């Protein structure tokens, strides 16, 4: 049995989603005439606590759409130096929007270092009188935070960063691709997290298991302009109700089950720790993402990932970490199987004479 823990993007649509897609009531969404899309957008906006929402093909396009809607060309987009926006969206903010990434330090909980944020914002010239400095057009936050290990920045952390920006008239966008995971981890209703920002995007196609789609939510004027930008980016869809039908099922039925993913991630982390604590540094997961790294120069990440794959367990790398992600389709049997195979790999490494030095950091990313 192959156990694929690379990402929650590997979820497959449920039978209910497939049935809903087959019978979806559809129309031309570019004309605003697809009833299923319209219903999804209304429900998503209400869930996030915003006036309006817009179905998007992807989360990356939703983030780019928000940046273009808020910012004029040549402006800076402040984001975390570990953010998805900065690392994994193909440089679109610069390449397509003519905007400037201004990354600042992410704290371990996925928030932003307020001292660094304040230093950047002090240079923001709201009047535009200083022609040497590009203006700040947007502050982009993230929750839950992917590269920081699926952690959920606290409401206070997000709110403090947003308050810094708003005092200077700078809008705030939240990349909430996994915002339902974050809300669950913090024990908060999702609209409380969304309220820290002026707009939010969330994915239907990760832990919520829809086959495709993300939603961008914000004020009615913001979404009107974002709809034009979506068209500009090639994201105007026609009978998109087929996609939206699965998204509705995801939104209505898949949020509560994320708790299973979190519990299984904790089980996986504990299992890895139990069989390899002398060789690996394992971060306790807060949501559905488990990160760990080697302490030994003799046990490189490529070698470990390859050895696991040979045992039928697929994981990926994320910066200096190896990443495993729980999701729909991965149950307790798969997690226990992965731990058993992990133990087999570690036994093989010990048999090769590996003696990890607990003070040595990994030699690869």
Mind explaining what this structure looks like?
By secondary structure, the chain is α/β, with parallel strands linked by helices. The chain folds into two domains: 12-253, 3-Layer(aba) Sandwich (Aspartate Aminotransferase, domain 2); 257-351, Aspartate Aminotransferase, domain 1 (Alpha-Beta Complex). It has 14 helices and 13 strands. The strands form three sheets. The protein has a seven-stranded mixed sheet with strand order 2-8-7-6-5-3-4, with helices on both faces. A four-stranded antiparallel sheet has the order 9-10-13-12, covered by helices on one side. Helix 1 runs antiparallel to helix 11. The model is unreliable at 354-365 (pLDDT under 50).
Query: In this structure, how is the largest beta sheet organized?
Result: 7 strands, mixed
Instruction: Quickly give the structural class.
Output: alpha/beta
The backbone outline, from C-alpha atoms, is: globular
Placed side by side, the strands forming the largest sheet appear as: 2-8-7-6-5-3-4
Unreliable runs: 354-365
**Count of discrete alpha- or pi-helical segments spanning 4 or more residues:** 14
Radius of gyration: 21 Å
Taken together, the total number of domains comes to: 2
CATH class type of the largest domain: Alpha Beta
Query: What share of residues are in beta strands?
Result: 15-25%
CATH architecture of the largest domain: 3-Layer(aba) Sandwich
Oligomer: single chain
The SSE order reads EHHEHEHHEHEHEHHEEHHHEEHEEEH
Number of separate strands:
13
């Amino acid at each position: 049995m192959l156990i694929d823990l690379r990402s929650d993007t590997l979820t497959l649509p449920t039978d209910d989603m497939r049935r809903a897609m087959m019978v979806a009531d559809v129309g031309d969404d570019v004309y605003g005439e697809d009833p299923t899309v319209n219903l999804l957008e209304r429900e998503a906006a209400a869930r996030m606590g915003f006036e309006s929402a817009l179905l998007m093909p992807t989360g990356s396009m939703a983030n780019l759409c928000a940046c273009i809607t808020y910012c004029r060309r040549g402006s800076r987009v402040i984001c975390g130096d570990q953010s998805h926006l900065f690392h994994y969206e193909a440089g679109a903010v610069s390449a397509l929007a003519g905007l400037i990434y201004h990354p600042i330090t992410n704290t371990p909980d996925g928030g932003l270092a307020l001292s660094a944020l304040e230093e950047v914002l002090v240079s923001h010239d709201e009047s535009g009188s200083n022609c040497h400095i590009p203006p700040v057009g947007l502050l982009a936050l993230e929750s839950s935070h992917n590269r920081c290990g699926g952690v959920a920045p606290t409401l206070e952390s997000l709110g403090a960063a947003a308050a810094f920006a708003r005092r200077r008239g700078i809008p705030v966008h939240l990349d909430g691709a996994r915002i339902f995971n974050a809300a669950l981890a913090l024990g908060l209703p999702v609209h409380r997290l969304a309220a820290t920002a002026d707009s939010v995007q969330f994915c239907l196609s990760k832990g919520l298991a829809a086959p495709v789609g993300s939603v961008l939510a914000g004020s009615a004027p913001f979404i009107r302009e974002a709809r034009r930008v979506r068209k500009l980016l090639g994201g105007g869809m026609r009978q998109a109700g087929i996609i939206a039908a699965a998204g509705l099922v995801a939104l209505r039925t898949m949020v509560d089950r994320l708790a299973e993913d979190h519990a299984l991630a904790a089980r996986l982390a504990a299992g890895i720790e139990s069989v390899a604590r002398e060789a690996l540094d394992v971060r306790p997961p807060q949501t559905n993402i488990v990160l760990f790294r080697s302490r030994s120069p003799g046990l490189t990440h490529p070698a470990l990932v390859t050895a696991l794959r040979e045992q039928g367990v697929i994981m990926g790398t994320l910066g200096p970490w190896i990443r495993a992600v729980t999701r729909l389709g991965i149950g307790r049997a798969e997690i226990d199987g992965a731990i058993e195979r992990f133990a087999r790999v570690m036994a093989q490494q010990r048999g090769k004479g590996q003696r990890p030095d607990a003070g040595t950091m990994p030699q690869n990313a």
